[in-house]
């Protein structure tokens, strides 16, 4: 596919103009960042794996009636998506204490929460994506009350579905991040799920060993990031059991074959 005009570049993805009005092409990079981009690196083949995993999960969510921006995967690193007006709120759904929640409240990491917690963070890298309340959201007009009801309902529905999906393959869904956007029909705006769902934005632990199968391996210098992402894809049925032969970087693959 011919390269189109770049619209936006984030930490893990690039957005290009789409082939039709109201569409974009979302390109998944291998770049890895943590702690609001204070730590940077590269995980070879991450973009390919995240593209496949996100496609798979968004397709399944669409099949149960969750509206998303996903249209179809185009190739190893790109997918066609609906263009949305991103709501500047990161929604974090927590089932198990980990990360900032453990640090903030002094709860031992790995503690099962008595109930699922939904948190909101203001999307602003310069401010470090601060934790906010629904009062802040209403005060500054980042989303309407009706939109927040839709966002929270969808977040809980996605959590219920994904907990079952990952439990079925021996993975504990500790927490995850969601983003939402508006699509417009004249003056009527509707909220849909946007961005991606992948090991970049989820904490995924093996149910038996508690081994981390997500970006915490990069955050905490544990190593084995590629293998962890591959394991998630393999358990989801997206990679053959012998994932070592999977093509994750087309350019390197062509070089190896002498093309």
UniProtKB/TrEMBL annotation:
Residues annotated as domain SAICAR synthetase/ADE2 N-terminal: 6-235
Keyword field: ATP-binding, Ligase, Nucleotide-binding, Purine biosynthesis
InterPro entries: SAICAR_synt/ADE2_N, SAICAR_synt_PurC, SAICAR_synth, SAICAR_synthetase, SAICAR_synthetase_CS
CDD domains linked: SAICAR_synt_PurC (cd01415)
GO MF: ATP binding; phosphoribosylaminoimidazolesuccinocarboxamide synthase activity
UniProt catalytic activity: 5-amino-1-(5-phospho-D-ribosyl)imidazole-4-carboxylate + L-aspartate + ATP = (2S)-2-[5-amino-1-(5-phospho-beta-D-ribosyl)imidazole-4-carboxamido]succinate + ADP + phosphate + 2 H(+)
Gene3D superfamilies, per the entry: ATP-grasp fold, B domain, Phosphorylase Kinase, domain 1
Record pathway: Purine metabolism; IMP biosynthesis via de novo pathway; 5-amino-1-(5-phospho-D-ribosyl)imidazole-4-carboxamide from 5-amino-1-(5-phospho-D-ribosyl)imidazole-4-carboxylate: step 1/2
EC assignment: 6.3.2.6
Signal sequence extent: none
GO CC, alphabetical: cytosol
UniProt keyword annotation of Hydrolase present: no
GO biological process: 'de novo' IMP biosynthetic process; cobalamin biosynthetic process
Top-rank lineage group of the source organism: Bacteria
Pfam families, A to Z: SAICAR_synt
PANTHER family assigned: MULTIFUNCTIONAL PROTEIN ADE2, SI:DKEY-6E2.2
Family: Belongs to the SAICAR synthetase family.
Protein name: Phosphoribosylaminoimidazole-succinocarboxamide synthase
Organism annotation: Sphingomonas changbaiensis NBRC 104936
